[in-house]
Design goal:
single chain, alpha/beta, seven-stranded mixed beta sheet
Length: 502
C-alpha cells in the first residue's frame, strides 16, 4: 500500500471499468499514477472500501488519498459516469423506452438511492435522473418539459434565459412526464387539471428540493420544475454583486429595530435571494425570525418558514396575522400582492417589527405609488418604509469569445454612447456552452425615504417626480448602470435591450 495522505491536491484522472458504478458506492476509485493503474481509497471510508475489495480479485496496488484529493477524484468519477449514462440513454431512448408502460414506472421508484449511483433503474428513470444531473451541471434554475404535436422538448433556464436541451418522440416524453408525476406524489391518471407537487433528489450526496408544476395543454401535459436552493447556497450580502455603496446602505438599514425594507423587480430578478441574504445578515439566537413565502425557495435551519397554501386558506394575509401572534422580531413576506397584505405589513412595521418584502414594480420609486394605489395612506407609507431597492440580473459576456460590435446611430443616441465607443457582442464557445454569456451580475438602485421625500409625499406626486428627487439625492439608476456595463464590455447591446429598463 502507498499512502499519499500527506500529499495535498493530487491531480488524478478516473479510469473506468466494467463495475465502475458498483465500486463508486463503496468509495473505491480507479486511477493511474506514473502510468500504473491503482485503486484509490480514503481513510474516512476505509471499512466500506475494504469490505467491497475483499469480495473482488483485483491485483492493483491500493493508494490512500488525502480528503481533498479523494473528493476531487470522486466527483470526477461521478460526473464521468453520469455523462456516459446521458450519452447512452439519449441514443437508446426511442428504441427502449417506448415499450415502457407508465403504470409500471412506480415499481422502479427508489427514494433512498443517490441518482448518480442507481444501478437498477429502468431506462425511463435513468433518463429523468440524467435531466436533473444535467440541470445541476449547467446551473439551471428551471427545467421545462413541453409536448407539441409530433415531438417533446426539454429546455433549461440558465442565467434567466431558456435554452433547448433535447428533443424526443412525443410518446417517450409522455412517459417522462408520468415518471415526474410519480416521484412528486401527483395523480398520474389525472391529465385534465393543473397539479402542483414537490420532490427531492440526491446528487453526489447532496439533497435538492424540486417544485413541480404540471399544466394540461392542447397536445399534452407541460411540466415546469423549479430547483430550490438550500440555505448554504445563499450568497452573503457582499457576494450578491451589488455595488459596495448600496451594500453598505442596506446593511445600515437592517440595523433598525422596526420599519420596512422592500425589494422590487420583475420575476427572476433575484428578489428572494436578496431577501434571504438580508435575513442571513441579521439572524442570531436572540431574534425570532419568521417568514411566509410562496414557495419556500431557500430552506434554512435558523428561520421559521411558512409555506402559503391557498387551498386551505393559508394566504399571505392570514399567515401574516398568525405570525404577529408568535412574538416575532423580524418578518419576511414573500410578496405583497394585495391591499390587505400591504396594510398588515405596514402596521407590523409601525408596531416594532422589522419587515422585509417584495413588490412587482420596474423601478424603486414606483413601489411608493403602487402602495398608494393599494389604498394605503401616504403618512403611513413614509412613517414605515426605510428604503426600496429595485434590482435586475444582467448576463455577462464570456471573456473567452466575445467579439467587437458596432453601435447604430439610433442606439448611440438612445444610450448617450459615443459612436466610436467599442462595444462587444456574444459569439459562443465551449467555455460558455456556446451561448456567448457566462454568469450574471446584479445591478440595483436604492431609493431611501429621506426627509425630502417625506416632505414631497405630502402632496400629489408621481413616479417620475420621485425618481428625480432620488437622483438629486445621489441614487444611481439601473439604466445608467446598464449603460456602464455596455460601455466597459461587460454585457452586450442585445442584453441591454432585453433587460429594457426605462
Amino acid at each position: 500500500m502507498v499512502d499519499l495522505e500527506e500529499i495535498h491536491n493530487v491531480e488524478l484522472d478516473v479510469i473506468e471499468f466494467e463495475n465502475h458504478a458498483l465500486a463508486l458506492k463503496s468509495f473505491v476509485l480507479f486511477s493511474s499514477i506514473n502510468d500504473i493503474d491503482v485503486i484509490c481509497i480514503s481513510k474516512e471510508h476505509i471499512s466500506l472500501s475494504f469490505d467491497y475489495l475483499s469480495k473482488q480479485s483485483f491485483e492493483h496496488e491500493i493508494v490512500f488519498l488525502n480528503e481533498i484529493s479523494f473528493e476531487k477524484l470522486y466527483t470526477k468519477a461521478i460526473e464521468s459516469l453520469a455523462d456516459k449514462r446521458m450519452s447512452d440513454i439519449t441514443q437508446t431512448t426511442e428504441d427502449s423506452m417506448i415499450e415502457e408502460d407508465d403504470i409500471n414506472i412506480s415499481e422502479f421508484l427508489k427514494t433512498s438511492s443517490d441518482i448518480m449511483t442507481d444501478e437498477g433503474s429502468a431506462p425511463i428513470i435513468k433518463f429523468v435522473n440524467s435531466l436533473f444531473y444535467q440541470a445541476i451541471k449547467k446551473k439551471s434554475s428551471d427545467i421545462h418539459i413541453e409536448l407539441h404535436e409530433f415531438k417533446g422538448e426539454v429546455r433549461y433556464r440558465v442565467d434567466g434565459v431558456l435554452a433547448k436541451h433535447i428533443e424526443l418522440d412525443k410518446n417517450v416524453m409522455a412517459l417522462v412526464v408520468s415518471r415526474i408525476k410519480v416521484i412528486s406524489n401527483l395523480d398520474i391518471s389525472e391529465k385534465r387539471v393543473p397539479q402542483d407537487g414537490r420532490t427531492a433528489i440526491k446528487i453526489s450526496g447532496k439533497t435538492l428540493d424540486i417544485r413541480v408544476s404540471v399544466l394540461p395543454t392542447f397536445y399534452g401535459e407541460r411540466v415546469v420544475m423549479r430547483i430550490l436552493m438550500q440555505s448554504e447556497d445563499i450568497p452573503t450580502l457582499e457576494n450578491l454583486g451589488i455595488s459596495e455603496d448600496i451594500t453598505k446602505q442596506l446593511s445600515h438599514l437592517t440595523q433598525n429595530s422596526y420599519g420596512m425594507i422592500l425589494v422590487t423587480g420583475p420575476t427572476g430578478s433575484g428578489k428572494s435571494t436578496t431577501l434571504h441574504s438580508l435575513l442571513q445578515t441579521i439572524e442570531s439566537p436572540d431574534k425570532n425570525i419568521i417568514t411566509v413565502e410562496d414557495p419556500v425557495e431557500y430552506k434554512s435551519d435558523n428561520i421559521n418558514q411558512i409555506q402559503v397554501n391557498e387551498k386551505v386558506g393559508l394566504t399571505f394575509s392570514s399567515g401574516l396575522r398568525s405570525i404577529l401572534r408568535q412574538d416575532p422580531d423580524v418578518i419576511m413576506i414573500g410578496e405583497i400582492r394585495d391591499g390587505e397584505t400591504a396594510s398588515i405589513a405596514i402596521q407590523s412595521a409601525l408596531t416594532g417589527h422589522l419587515v422585509f418584502s417584495t413588490l412587482h414594480t420596474n423601478r424603486a420609486p414606483a413601489a411608493i405609488t403602487r402602495l398608494i394605489d393599494m389604498g394605503l395612506e401616504r403618512f403611513l407609507i413614509t412613517s414605515s418604509i426605510l428604503g426600496v431597492m429595485a434590482q435586475r440580473l444582467v448576463r455577462q459576456l464570456c471573456d473567452h469569445c466575445k467579439e467587437e460590435d458596432t453601435l447604430s446611430l439610433h442606439h448611440s443616441e438612445e444610450f448617450s454612447i459615443p459612436k466610436n465607443n467599442i462595444v462587444y457582442k456574444a459569439k459562443g464557445c465551449s467555455k460558455c456552452s456556446f451561448n456567448g454569456y457566462k454568469g450574471r451580475q446584479a445591478i440595483a438602485e436604492l431609493f431611501m425615504i429621506t426627509d425630502d421625500v417625506k416632505k414631497e409625499m405630502q402632496n400629489e406626486i408621481d413616479d417620475e417626480q420621485l425618481m428625480q428627487i432620488a437622483i438629486q439625492n445621489g441614487m444611481k439608476t439601473l439604466s445608467s448602470q446598464l449603460v456602464d456595463m455596455l460601455k466597459n464590455g461587460t454585457t452586450s447591446l442585445e442584453e441591454v435591450i432585453r433587460i429594457g429598463i426605462k
